[in-house]
Amino acid sequence: MAPTIRMERRLMTRLTSKKTTLDRYRPLSRSTAQRLHDDLRLLLTYHSNAIEGNTLSLRETQIVLEEGITIDGHPLREYLEATNHAHAFGNGRVGRLLLNLMLMQAGYPPALLLREWRIRYIQALGSADSGNYTSLLGIIGLAVEQSLDLYLQACEATAAQEEYRTLAELAAQLAMDADYLGLLARQGRLDAIKRGSRWYATAEAVQRYQTEAARGKRERVPQRHRQRKSTNIPNAE
What we know:
The protein is about 65% helix and about 5% strand. With about 240 residues, it is mainly alpha-helical. The chain has a three-stranded antiparallel beta sheet with strand order 1-3-2. Strand 2 and strand 3 form a beta hairpin. The chain is elongated and about 65 Å long. It folds into two domains: about 150 residues, Orthogonal Bundle (Fic-like fold); about 70 residues, no CATH class. This is Fido domain-containing protein.
């Protein structure tokens, strides 16, 4: 018979409340989702490896992940732990990856177990081996709360900077065609989100698209122009 496991009531209430708040921001805008992806990739790799004894700092881990540069004074094993984080380096990391997969399937962000909790985490695993899961459940709950706070901070910062409006409202504000904005949103060229049957975006997102589109036009030289220019080059004799 499986043991009865209950999370501390106040922690469970906080997690439920914060997830409900996060759900109100969904679907996340593309820029917010990308920022969270980049931040969590670094933080999860750093803290998970540190729990296993890796001594790379957060900045050193970032350099390894983003630039592929080895760090002087650290053994090759630690460099490989950062670059091959998800593969074949111990049951602990694999177990946390599986935990995060289950959390994300349930609509939660991945659990962010901090390196500062290493001793508590190891002790909680030992208690779980003896059939007492209370401590482990508690520390996992705190790790999920860490990620929920990270998500909510990113969403609230975006909401404070950018006000989402329907494409029709943006078109009227910016003197643009609403159908054209809808086409850009469906093609993924405009950073927009769909709520129900309507697309929403921000004036800042439209301005970013216009800037990127203008830059792309300047950088593209028409093939006909290049060919015509090459035929006008005089022969050097």
